[in-house]
Description:
This protein is mainly β. The protein has helices spanning about 1-20, 330-335, 395-400, 405-420, and strands at about 20-25, 30-35, 45-50, 65-70, 75, 90-95, 100, 115-120, 125, 140-145, 150-155, 160-175, 185-200, 205-215, 220, 230-240, 240-245, 255-260, 265-270, 280-285, 290, 305-310, 315, 335. Helix content is about 10%, strand content about 30%. The chain starts with a helix and ends with a helix.
Amino acid sequence: MHLFLEFNCVVILVVLLDLGFTAVINSDDEELPCPGSCLCEEEDTLFCNSIELQKVPGYWPNHYRKVVLRNVSLTTLHKASFKRFKALEELRIEECFQLDMIDKYAFKGLHKLRILAITRNPKLTQIYKATFSGIGNENSLKIFINNNALTHVQPYSFKNVQNIRELTIEDECVSFGKNSLSSILKLDFAVLRGVCHLAAETFSNTTRVHNLHISDSNFDLVTRAFAGLTHVNHILLQNNRINTIHEDAFGGSSTIGNLQIQTNKIIHLEPRAFAATENLGSVVFMQNTITQALRSPECIYNEAQKFVFSDNTLKCDCALKWARHHSDRTFLKENFCGREEAFKALIYYEPQGCPTEPPPIEEPSTRFFMTEEPPLLSTDAGNNFNYLSKHTSSTASSRCSLINWQLPIVCVLLRSHFTQYL
Ligand SMILES: *[C@@H]1O[C@H](CO)[C@@H](O)[C@H](O)[C@H]1NC(C)=O
Ligand SMILES: *[C@@H]1O[C@H](CO)[C@@H](O)[C@H](O)[C@H]1NC(C)=O
């Protein structure tokens, strides 16, 4: 009998050890299990560091509000891995040296989640379709995907994700496929660093973005890169190396409050790069260096309500001859040649030794004025977009003669006025 009891105890002990439970004593002297070789310094925090783990075990307690898996030997994060963790507010997957796959719907059902950080996992190269779908967060959620080995974000990785406070994706060289950041509803701050490819329609059907910031990247702004993106307060492209800003790079987007392109190194700005947008508030293009000459006035053609193009360093060579006949003196005064012309303002640039003088470009050409009406900005998009009221500042209208729809009328009036005296 005695022997039998002892045997029973051993069995229980072995079973307990097998399940990998160690005990922590909380203040109420009530024992809460802490799984594996993890730490549970606070009752609602699970911190697992440098342990063997192939999957998140189904027997782990699930009351935690914060879970950190650091340097665990996971290779795959399976679908709905954390679904039992109904109270989880913060999840960090860090330095998992073998993690190379996160299944679709991996974070499904984490309704209380506020912070999701996936950082420094050196084998994580791809984010696949629907990885972040199905979270169903009730609160505003921050997602950080930083310093992994990410090279590709596949289409619809964030499909139907809603109410994101911040989404940061940062790595050495990330290629964003078509629709990769598509169908996100309400994204306050999107921060992308280390972009090396941004496909057309990367953001299709994504709406209500407060700030979209792309910096420290090296990529091409392809035609329709932002197509399908609607209701954005501010897009900022800063400190990037951009090979070419292609025709209609911002085409197909709608209701962008402010597009700011600042301190980038750009090789080529194509004609009509800012064309084909709908309801574009202001464009501020400042302090950029463009290494190939702008070929025609259409390079600064746009449909924005306000267009500021100043303090840029432009290549001055024969291709820029059109600028001598350009009517927008502000453009000529506030932008500068490069070193080749000792950084003089464009207005002082005199092309030398160029092949035969082309006939003066007839400008402003009529196609500049095809938009008879300045775009009307909707106010139905919530308070974020109220600033889009139609105030075009006076400096802007003098600055942007090319885009001012009223100018032809003024020009015609002036012309008839002067002919009277000729
Ligand atoms: C990661 O965990 C392994 C054991 O699984 C350990 O040998 C290694 O030293 C740990 N690395 C770091 C950086 O903590
Ligand atoms: C965008 O949303 C519309 C309407 O919900 C849908 O028909 C269309 O397929 C979506 N497009 C993409 C690229 O997801």
